[in-house]
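Case 130 in the screening queue. Each case pairs one protein sequence with one candidate compound; here the compound is tetrahydrodeoxyuridine. For every case the pipeline is the same: read the inputs, emit a complex structure as tokens, and attach any notable structural observations.

Predict complex for case 130.
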Amino acid sequence: MSLLDDARAVRPNAYAPYSKFSVGAAIRSASGHIYRGVNVENVAYPEGTCAEAGAIAAMIAAGETQLVEVAVIADSPSPVPPCGGCRQKLAEFGAGDVVVTLGTTAGATLQTTISDLLPGRFDASHMDHS
Ligand code: THU
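Case 130 output:
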């Protein structure tokens, strides 16, 4: 079973009554454990959270901080790209060369990496003002 299968399996649990766009995400941590997440929308639209954020929160709650692989899936015409905020969230916990597999429910896939998704990212070194 691939990580994308995990993302596919959890996607039906998404809470997306407003956009009707269900997203599933799965991340593999350094220990090999897999954490799943879905988007959770809210009637106050900006309060909604993305599937990637949910998977990251599950990993952190379990006591892990390093992700080594990511998969995201949605019923979209082309493999769903993570939003800008999720790119920054993924980069917080994964190295630049971490593989991110984007998928569609119809079976299309696209493989990329965290650094390709977020080149020139803001990181802790930018706060070094000494
Ligand atoms: N969404 C995600 O969960 N992940 C993505 O990578 C793209 C967008 C969600 C947010 C919102 O609930 C819905 O998809 C439509 O934007």
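Case 130 observations:
- The pocket of tetrahydrodeoxyuridine is lined by residues 16, 19, 21, 23, 39, 41, 48, 50-52, 72, 80, 82-83, 86 (CB under 6 Å).
- The longest helix spans residues 51-61.
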